[in-house]
């Protein structure tokens, strides 16, 4: 996996039901190779592996699901 293509976000996806709400959108997107969310982390870190999507595009997808996320910078 090329780490240059991992987009990292702080989110408010905190529970299994929150995760399920975004799962359908993220799983079905053709340019997302893999994604995870760490609900145990304070920042509820969302990681998206995609060589084509930008942070802005992922933020828009998550926002449409009713959740917030913002780029997490090192």
Strand order of the biggest β-sheet: 2-3-1-4
Based on the structure, what is the oligomeric state of the protein chains?
single chain
Question: In whole angstroms, how far apart are the ends?
Answer: 19 Å
The helix-strand sequence is EHEEHE
| Sheet with the most strands, sense and barrel status | 4 strands, antiparallel
Fraction of helical residues: 25-40%
Overall structural domain count: 1
List unreliable stretches of 5+ residues. Answer: none
What is the mean pLDDT? 93
**Which range does the strand content fall in?**
15-25%
Summarize the structure.
This protein is α+β, with helices and mostly antiparallel strands. The protein has a single domain (3-71), classed as Alpha-Beta Plaits (2-Layer Sandwich). It contains two helices and four strands, in the order E-H-E-E-H-E.
